[in-house]
Design brief:
Blueprint: H1 39-51, E1 56-59, H2 62-73, E2 85-89, E3 93-103, H3 108-127, E4 130-142, H4 149-158
Parallel strand pairs: 3-4
Antiparallel strand pairs: 1-3, 2-3
């Protein structure tokens, strides 16, 4: 069942027991030390997972998307994957609040369920944290005839 912690016999010919064998530092190397995960890490994972769901048009409210479009124009600003995501991370658990914009015609309850499942699976798999809740606020519906704010910005820049 378990390995013997003592050797029997001796390499030098005497039959005295040797001292117990032990690993350096004691215990499994994977348990030595502590790992902390920042809120922003969980927010990025959740943001990417939510965006992967069919029916999610964008993340965040209109105001945060407007500020995000301005931030995206700044060199080095890049797209913010954490837009519309807020995480509270504890030692072993996390809770998430997401704000999404859905495409017109999709069942919001189905999209919300799919977002929850995808976000929980991704966060738990990548961080090992238990996701205790994922609250979703649908802040807007993208209508087929509406232009994206970001598309408008690009068109104005090209003219």
């Amino acid at each position: 069942m378990t390995e013997s912690s003592q050797r029997t016999g001796s390499d030098s010919g005497d039959n005295r027991s040797k001292a117990p064998l032990s690993k350096r530092g004691g215990g499994d190397p994977g348990t030595r030390g502590r790992t902390t995960i920042a809120d922003g890490v969980v927010e990025k994972i959740a943001g990417m997972a939510a965006r992967d769901v069919v029916g999610v048009h964008a993340m965040g409210s209109g105001l945060s998307r407007t500020f995000g479009a301005v931030r995206d124009r700044v060199p080095g600003g890049g797209k913010s994957v954490t837009r519309g995501v807020k995480a509270e991370v504890g030692e072993s658990q996390t809770a998430l609040d997401l704000e999404i914009v859905v495409d017109y015609g999709v069942a919001i309850s189905d999209v919300s369920r799919d977002v929850r499942e995808n976000v929980i699976a991704a966060v738990e798999r990548m961080t090992g944290l238990e996701v205790v809740e994922v609250n979703i606020a649908v802040s807007d519906v993208k209508l087929p005839d509406e232009d994206d704010d970001e598309d408008d910005d690009d068109q104005q820049r090209l003219q």
